Amino acid sequence: MRFHLIYILTLVFKTIVGQIPNNSFETWNTMSGYSTPANWDNLNQITFSSGIFTCSQGTPGNPGSSYLILMSKTVSGRGVVPGIAVSGKLDTSTYKPLSGYAFTNRPQSLNYNIQYMPYDPTDSSSVKVLLTRWDTTTLLRDTIAYGASYYNAMAHSWFVGSTYLNYQSGDAPDSALIVLSSSSSSPKEWSYIYLDNLQFSGSVIGINEQSVNQEDVLIFPNPTIESFTMELKNNVDAAEICVYDIIGKQIFRTSFSNSITVNTMTWARGTYFVKISRNNKSSINKKIIIQ
Question: Which residue segment(s) compose the domain that 233 sits in?
Fold first, then answer.
C-alpha cells in the first residue's frame, strides 16, 4: 500500500470545525514569567528569562478578542530565535516539533486569517500541516498527508490563507500536527506572522489506489543511504522532481529527462516524499527512506 500511486477521484467539500484545540487563540495560560496560548507549545519557555518573547497575544482578534503573534528576536547566547508555535509539543533545543494531537479526519486544506512580514527577502514565514498514523507493525508513524505554505513578501491587512494537503495514503490519520513559524531555518530578526481562526476545510474521499507498473516511475534503491536513482519508463522529456521532508519543506527540486541520480549523503535520516510532474499535466507521488 505504501508504494502505490494515489489518485483522488472525488472531493466533497464541507467545513470541519472544532478539530483544532484553541484554534482562535482565545485562551491563554499564565506560566512562571510568561503567557502561552493553551494547547500550543512555543519558545517563550526558553526566552522569558531574558525578558524576550517570540510568541505573544494580539488584540483584537480576527474574529474574537485575540490572535497569535510570532516574531523572530535576538536572544543573548542563542542568536536569532524564530517565533514558533506547535499544536502539541516542541523541542526547545532543535526547535522541531515532537508531537501533535488526536485527529481522525481527512481535510482538504487548513484555512486561517493571516498577516505577515519577513524582515529580510531571504526569510519566509510558514504554515505547515502533517497528518500521521501509527503503524503497529513497523512501530513508526506513517504520513497520511502533508502541506506547507511559505510567505516571503508582506501583507499588513488580514486575509484568508489556505494550506492544501497532499495525501500519501488512503488511510485515516490518528494525529495532526500544525507548525506555525515567523521565519525559515535561517531566521531574521523582526520577521513576524499573525494568525487567527484556524480551521480545517473539506473532506477528501473516494481514494482509488493503483499499483505501480512498468510504465510508471521507478525509484531505487529504497531504502537508501547515499543516493537514489529515478527512471521514467515511458521516456518522458523535461519531467520535474520535487522532494519534501516529513513536515512538507521542499529540500530538492530540478528537471530531468528519462533518469536522474540524487545525492542524499547530506540529508538527515528519515522519510521523504518525491513528487514527479510530467509534461505539466500529471504528477506521481512516492515515498523514499534515507537510512
Answer: 213-290
Query: Among candidates 108, 145, 112, 106, which has minimal Cα distance to 127?
Result: 112
Digit-coded pLDDT (tens) for 110-156: 999 999 999 988 899 999 999 999 999 888 899 999 888 888 888 88
222 plus 179 within the same structural domain:
no
SS3 at position 50: helix
Q: What is the CA radius of gyration of the chain?
A: 20
Specify whether the CB–CB gap between 258 and 217 falls below 8 A: no
Following DSSP, what letter does each residue of 157-203 receive, concatenated? Answer: EEEEEEEE-EE--SSPPSEEEEEEESS-SS--TT-EEEEEEEEEEEE
Contact 183, 48 (CB under 8 A): no
For the full predicted model, state whether its pTM sits above 0.85: no
Same domain, 152 and 10: yes
Cell of 238: 523535461
DSSP state, residue 48:
G
Q: The domain spanning residue 74 has which CATH number?
A: 2.60.120.890
pLDDT tens digit string along 39-65? Answer: 999 999 999 999 999 999 999 999 999
Q: Which of 175, 208, 241 is the last residue of a domain?
A: 208
Residue 224 DSSP one-character state: B
The single-letter code of the amino acid at 91 is D
If asked whether residues 112 and 194 sit together in one domain, one would say yes
| Residue 182 identity (one-letter amino acid) | S
Which residues are registered as beta bridge partners of 270?
Answer: 290
DSSP one-letter code for 44: H
Question: What is d(CA 208, CA 169) in angstroms, rounded to the nearest whole number?
Answer: 10
Rounded distance between C-alpha atoms, residue 291 and residue 282, angstroms: 30
Residues with Cβ within 8 Å of residue 120, at least 6 apart in sequence: 188, 191
Query: What are the backbone dihedrals phi and psi of residue 46, each rounded to the nearest 5 degrees, phi first?
Result: -110, -5
